[in-house]
Amino acid sequence: MTVPGPGDGDLLDFVSKLAALAAETEEIESAIQRAADLAQEHFDLVAASVWLVDPARPKYLELRALSTRTPMASPPAWSIPAARGVVGRALRQERPQLLVDVHSDSDYLAQFPETIAEVVIPLRHRDGALGAVVFDADRPEALSSEKVALLEAVASQLAGLARFAAIERRNQEMTFELEQSNLRLRERNESLSEFATTDALTGLPNRRQFDQTLETEWRRATRGEAPIAIILGDIDYFKRLNDTAGHQRGDVVLAEVAEVLRGAFTRAGDLAARYGGEEFVVVLPDTPLETAAELAEQARARIEARAIEHPASQLGPVVTLSMGVASVVPGLGGDPALLLAEADAALYRAKARGRNRVELAGGELQPGSKLPGFKTQVARPET
After folding, report:
1. Is residue 278 among the annotated active site residues?
2. What is the per-residue pLDDT across 65-88, written as a single tens digit (0 to 9) for each?
3. Which one of 115, 140, 278, 296 is separated from 376 by 20 to 30 angstroms, measured CA to CA?
4. Beta strands in the chain (DSSP E)
5. Closest by alpha carbon to 89, among 68, 104, 108?
6. Candidates 24, 94, 168, 278; catalytic one
7. Is residue 178 part of a domain?
8. What is the dihedral of CA 242, 245, 249, 251, to 10 degrees?
9. Are residues 240 and 337 in the same domain?
10. Residues 52, 129: contact at Cβ < 8 Å?
11. Is residue 377 part of a domain?
12. C-alpha distance from residue 378 to each of 79, 355, 357 (Å)
């Protein structure tokens, strides 16, 4: 191939194409490859390769573009040490290295068998070295001083593109790091939020979460003129269990009771929480007293059927729960604390009337109740 000399139309076309690459910053990697292709084709080189500093390994250069006269299945190398060979010398001396005969230079590291002559041009920016561009030829005249000057113009364009590529990569890394930091922050916040609203022993929502939920559901019930119910439950003879079997056994019982309650109240909006000590509380939106009573009785029966061992109970060998139920359709200016107080009073009556039973606010449940599945008991004396 005859290389056009200065002033030829092909040379002007080459310079024009080279200048156009400066504007192609939206696709920097492809612009770098096209610059290598342009130089290789115009000067009929064995190869034109662009090596840039590897951000993950600053002492190495990674191959970012390769254009060869003969197609290759894979490049001779994907990365090279930045301090070795003619490339390393060019970076150290900060000036181009022209090898008219590569085999007479002890620093030359063979990449392509056809290479006779080579020029290595360092790519630099005021921040430091960016990498190097290597032009391999199979005859010395392909790298005359005039042509090397043109190749330095290619290298200058490549330095600009390499700088853009470094900035783009750093921006991508910073974006990724920011996304990861935000993700970790969200996870920590979620953990803190869960920690602040979850009872560590039972895994149920804690008193704080219950209070917030009750306030929210109370306002919703007020706006919709809908009923809202509260169930308060207390493990029977729990203090005696702790005194007899120890607090560790008491913790196990609390966790088991919580598991039963979690499975008993699964409707959308229902919230079963640990109220404190051996007490549990349930918020039931859109629930009238009769429905709340049925749900409470089903939960009480589930706990008794679970047959959790209780060696100190005077009701039998298993853990039981006393429960108080209250429900109201809130009015403007109403106070959810009053509903809670009604449920607490019903719980007190359940304790006073023998335990292991459900009592309703506003009056006791008489034997023979028509509520489906509701357990009634003759009152036992307090023990």
Report:
1. yes
2. 899 999 888 888 888 999 999 999
3. 278
4. 47-54, 57-68, 79-81, 97-99, 117-125, 128-137, 228-235, 271-276, 279-285, 321-328, 358-360
5. 108
6. 278
7. no
8. 0
9. yes
10. no
11. no
12. 87, 11, 10
Per-residue confidence at 4, pLDDT binned at 50, 70, 90?
Answer: very low
pTM of the model: 0.51
Looking at residue 166, what is its pLDDT?
63
Give the total residue count for the chain.
383
Return the structure tokens found at 239: 């203090």
Whether 129 and 257 share a structural domain: no
Contacts of 165 (CB under 8 A, 6+ apart): 28, 29, 32, 52, 64
Segment 178-198, tens digit of pLDDT: 888 888 878 777 666 666 889
What integer pLDDT is reported at residue 379 of this predicted model? 33
pLDDT digits (tens, 9 = 90+) for 276-335: 999 999 999 999 999 999 999 999 999 999 999 999 999 999 999 999 999 999 987 788
Residue 66 in any domain: the answer is: yes
Which phi and psi (to 5°) does residue 281 adopt? -140, 145
Give the Cα separation of 166 and 66 in Å (integer).
18
24 confidence band (pLDDT: 50, 70, 90): low
Give the domain range for residue 131.
9-173
Phi/psi of residue 253, nearest 5 degrees: -65, -45
Considering the domain architecture, whether residues 161 and 226 belong to the same structural domain is answered as no
Establish if 193 belongs to a structural domain. no
**Count of domains for the chain:** 2
What would the two tokens of residue 92 be?
Answer: 């150290």
Assess contact for 88 and 59: CB atoms under 8 A: no
Q: What's the number of CA atoms in the CB half-sphere (13 Å) around residue 36?
A: 27
Complete edge-to-edge strand list for the sheet that includes strand 57-68: 79-81, 57-68, 47-54, 128-137, 117-125, 97-99
